[in-house]
Amino acid sequence: NRYFVLDFETGILQYFVNEQSKNQKPRGTLSLAGAIISPSDEVPHMLVVYSANGEMYKLRAADAKEKQYWITQLRSCAKHHKEGNSKSISSSRSRSSSLLPPGTVNSASPSGQKHMNQSGSTVVTITHHKSPAAARRAKSQRSGQLHEVREIMSQVEGQQKNLVQAIEALPSSGPLSALDQDLLLLKATSAATLSCLGECLTLLQQSMHQVGQHHNRTLSSEGILGWPGPKSHSTEQLKNGALSSLSSASANITWAIVPSAAQDGQALQPNTEHSASELILVEDEMTDTEDNEEEDLGVMDDQRSVILHLISQLKLGMDLTRVVLPTFILEKRSLLEMYANFMAHPDLFLSIAAGATPEERIICFVEYYLTAFHEGRKGAVAKKPYNPIIGETFHCSWDVPKDKVKAFRTNGASTVSKDPIKEFGQDQSTCYKLRFVAEQVSHHPPVSCFYCECKEKKMCVNAHIWTKSKFMGMSIGVSMVGEGVLYLMEHEEEYVFTLPSAYARSILTIPWVELGGKVNINCARTGYSATVTFHTKPFYGGKVHRVTAEVKHNPTNTIVCKAQGEWNGMLEFTYSNGETKVIDTSKLPVIRKKIRPIAKQGPLESRHLWQHVTNSLKEGNIDAATEHKHRLEERQRAEERQRLALTTPWKPKYFAKEGDGWLYLNPLWKTH
């Protein structure tokens, strides 16, 4: 325990060993000007203060009320001093605080301060509240200053336009060409900087408008104006939902991850036989021998200039759905196949139904969910899978040895294996059969659906995912909108879950991918729910790929399991009875999927459809891959125009739209 004092007037947070030593030199101080204050779920009642110079304080309050009180005061102080620093008003004392915290007396002198005791050990120092007239004066000064900012911005935009025109007017070859790397970098970064400043100006205008509105109202007895903080693209929850896109999406969603069917071609034939599902012969399926390893995308010089040229045309926050990306960043498989890799541990998936109680089943689901993401990611590769075309399908299955399927909590066999990739026995009588089908059901927006079932275990999962991607300067964000539902027929339980967002970082050097955001798993029937948080790496320090989870029984508000670790490394689970378990995801055995040879696949099945692009990429022939990809895109556009002319909407083969989502046409719950 340490004794903290917040001096609102100086904008300094300082701490002492105890209250008695508060008149001595503080043990530590932190300037709050421009600081960011956010709650943390690392431990109860925790908040984190990130100062503008990179220092960080992690603080824990006595209870939720005190935590919220401190967050509000710290944010108010940080905002007040950030504004103070950005305005050339001679004395901050004349303005003092623009907020009236509870219990503060309106003091006539600027030095008047109020010490407030919270739960015995907290002292907050706050200055007096300024009059409404002073507030109006400050507001008019602020808007006047913003007018100057807008003028300067328009001047700079004009200069940047001239710069771009001058660069583009240069010859395409010679000692100083329009494609010179340094000039392309200058063009890209100047555009990105201007876009970023434009966004900042908009945020400033919005927050000033809000401040003005607040001052026009009568301040209530609890007139604390908590600064909501500008939503940056990195912290903004790229709104999401739905299942396993990221299984593999983890890293396969690549820096160019823009699974928007637009750029990779779609819709190859009107397909009048949609109602009749084609027969997929399981006997034709063979164990997949495809090596999913990808070379690192350490961007080569000639490739970097292409990326720079592309970036120079993008705007911050821009939706990338219709942006065509260079072929060399493509991964050698379709997004639909990537969803199948979410099932790389089918033994753990089937073990969910083996749980003896509702508590054990949701814990098994969380354990499976957390271990599912690493397999789609091979090494540190950040490449983009093919955007499925409309009507594209992917079929596969797994033979899962029955002795491998048991409640995961008591199952030591699956957690560690000397041989990480095993082909388990083919004897059908000793194996469960798990079948998977995925289909691209929509082009704009790009929506993928998949369905997976095991008849013997009476369980299946249905999911629909809409991928949205956004350009964020030197990184790209992809959110997964939609949801998945796991059905356990034997227990009459349905588990609804969502998916995290993916972020591709460092797109100009060696791109890498991280997951971020909060996902939920809920079972309405049993009252159990889980929250899984994928933490993005902070700007300063911090670990990458961190994940935390909590399983709760809502009727009793009891936490029955907690987990923490890295989604692609070690995960530690702690149960309510005190037991713990560690899982090393890198050592979990992978059961290879079974898939029919390309010769026996239909024309719209993923591997058949993309075979020429894949082969060209394997040979390193980027030009040929680009040409094959372009043909698919052109075919797709032509057929889309044809459908528009005939006003015949596309009808998917395996899924039907229901409300906001999509459902498999012949799910297990209908047949059982």
Automatic annotation (TrEMBL):
Keywords: Coiled coil, Cytoplasm, Cytoskeleton, Lipid biosynthesis, Lipid metabolism, Lipid transport, Lipid-binding, Methylation, Phosphoprotein, Transport. SUPFAM superfamilies: Oxysterol-binding protein-like, PH domain-like. Residues 104-122 have a biased composition (Polar residues). GO terms for molecular function: cholesterol binding. Residues 1-79 form the PH domain. GO terms for biological process: lipid metabolic process; lipid transport. Residues 81-122 are annotated as: Disordered. The keyword Disulfide bond does not apply. Transmembrane segments: none annotated. It is found in: Cytoplasm, Cytoskeleton. Residues 86-98 have a biased composition (Low complexity). InterPro entries: OSBP_sf (IPR037239), Oxysterol-bd (IPR000648), Oxysterol-bd_CS (IPR018494), PH-like_dom_sf (IPR011993), PH_8 (IPR041680), PH_domain (IPR001849). Pfam families: Oxysterol_BP, PH_8. The keyword Coiled coil applies. One of its GO terms (cellular component) is membrane. Belongs to the OSBP family. Interacts with OSBPL9. Interacts with DIAPH1. Probable lipid transporter involved in lipid countertransport between the endoplasmic reticulum and the plasma membrane. Its ability to bind phosphatidylserine, suggests that it specifically exchanges phosphatidylserine with phosphatidylinositol 4-phosphate (PI4P), delivering phosphatidylserine to the plasma membrane in exchange for PI4P. Plays a role in negative regulation of lipid biosynthesis. Negatively regulates APOB secretion from hepatocytes. Binds cholesterol and acidic phospholipids. Also binds 25-hydroxycholesterol. Binds phosphatidylserine. PANTHER family: OXYSTEROL-BINDING PROTEIN-RELATED, OXYSTEROL-BINDING PROTEIN-RELATED PROTEIN 10. This is Oxysterol-binding protein. It comes from Cepphus grylle.
